[in-house]
Write a structure and sequence with these properties.
This protein is of the alpha+beta class. The chain contains 3 helices and 4 strands; from the N terminus they run E-H-E-E-H-E-H. InterPro entries: 4Fe4S_Fe-S-bd, 4Fe4S_Fe_S_CS, PSI_iron-sulfur_center, YfhL-like.
Length: 82
């Protein structure tokens, strides 16, 4: 499942460099997570690093992009081949 940043985001800039897949970027008003690149850090870390570093707890699971761990690992494999 991809993650998403909600409206509580204060644009503190700590999540973007923490993402190993470069899935986070500055959006129009808050940071956004690209669901095509987000693997919830599966294959890299035990927990999503953006969630770990976020000081305002504004990162949630995105119910529009439900994926199992094997699917996330496959996505990571594809990303690493790019």
């Amino acid at each position: 499942m991809s993650l998403k940043i909600n409206e509580l985001c204060v644009n503190c800039d700590v999540c973007e460099p923490a993402c190993p897949n470069q899935a986070i970027s500055q959006g129009e008003s808050i940071y956004v997570i690209d669901p095509a690149r987000c693997t919830e850090c599966v294959g890299h870390y035990d927990e999503p690093q953006c969630v770990v570093v976020c000081p305002v707890e504004c990162i949630d699971k995105d119910p529009q992009f439900v994926e199992s761990e094997p699917q996330l690992l496959e996505k990571l494999r594809r990303l690493q081949q790019e």
